[in-house]
Amino acid sequence: MGHLKKFIEKFTNSKKTTNQEIVLRYNKKEQLKDKIVLITGAGKGIGRAIAKCFSEQGAKIFINSRTHRDLETLEKEIKDNGKEIKIFNGDITDSSTIKKMFNELKKQYGKLDICINSAGYAKFGNIESFSKEDFKKIIDINLSAVFSCIQESIIMMKANGDQGKIINIGSIASHWSERGGDGAYTASKFGLKGLTESIARQLHGKKSKISLSLLSPGVVDTPLTNPDQISKPDWLRPETVAESALHIATAPANVNVFNITLFGTEDQPFGK
Ligand SMILES: NC(=O)c1ccc[n+]([C@@H]2O[C@H](COP(=O)([O-])OP(=O)(O)OC[C@H]3O[C@@H](n4cnc5c(N)ncnc54)[C@H](OP(=O)(O)O)[C@@H]3O)[C@@H](O)[C@H]2O)c1
Question: Among residues 42, 92, 222, 240, which is most buried (max CB within 10 A)?
Fold first, then answer.
């Protein structure tokens, strides 16, 4: 009973956010001013769009992928726009690369506010002929590398006042199988949902303000899904996914926008 009374008092006494304050927040530019943001897989597709969007909002961006040229072109674009960016080139399926990346981040900025795990890979095929090597390759990047990045992020965020946001790029395949032949990818993305949920549960309720979120898009027009860049007007744009990431990243420090799932209306969701 005493607990309930304290709970009610806490909420009735807390300062209420007015509608006007909410409108101001929506219209605000530089919503991520001076926030330090690590984005894996930022060379292409969704990660690249998030990097541009967050940089526009004033964040200092630290980007990773394997193809140096992709990082260099993004670095130029962002610097030409007068914003700050650092690049870290490397394969994050190698755990020593992840260690080096976080050491470099620490050296450059000394803290981490937001981590976006976007690096990923997909391959589909019949179960009879799907190789164990491909299965492992998918799990290594879509799940194991994310696990290590979450671990390192939490260590840095705890040292920075036990706060920060970790956004994992899942997929609608985190929630249902999209098609036959997507077993390895679906297993990796279901696994990512479980990992995100479990770590969020471990942190929440223990006064930690580190939030973990799963951002789950349907088909997005990126080099992964559309390597020949044929016009796909009905598919989601990477920029649309970036807007959802921004929504998660700008939620108040004590709020976890845990799960956003978005897909084009042309998609046939929920298992077809
Ligand atoms: N596109 C979609 O329809 C869709 C839908 C739902 C979810 N997703 C998820 O969204 C994320 C991004 O996908 P995307 O469509 O943007 O793919 P993308 O266009 O292929 O971009 C993936 C990025 O990850 C990097 N990457 C891949 N393996 C890496 C590794 N081992 N180490 C470091 N970087 C690596 C790639 O660069 P390098 O190859 O140069 O390293 C690239 O910059 C993935 O997790 C994907 O599963 C995509």
Answer: 42
